[in-house]
Amino acid sequence: MQQQVWAGVDIGKTHHHAVVIDADGNRPLSRRVANDEDPPVRLLADVIGLAETVTWAVDMRTDGAALMLALLDE
């Protein structure tokens, strides 16, 4: 397990795209996920499993991002 990764999520109405970058600039995860409950939950679990510390960025805070933001806030 790595110590630190950075995860960015491009929010879309029906799908989001997430990319994770590690300290060496590698991309251990790049995934399109549907904007309903189960896929984002699985994405968060997979990303959290990559490193001890995850720093998240989301490109917007509008209604389309509500589910992802709520999950990240837990």
From TrEMBL:
An annotated GO BP: DNA transposition
Gene Ontology molecular function, alphabetical: DNA binding; transposase activity
Superkingdom as given in the UniProt entry: Bacteria
Domain Transposase IS110-like N-terminal: 7-73
Identification of the protein by name: Transposase
Organism: Actinomadura physcomitrii
Native organism taxonomy: Bacteria, Bacillati, Actinomycetota, Actinomycetes, Streptosporangiales
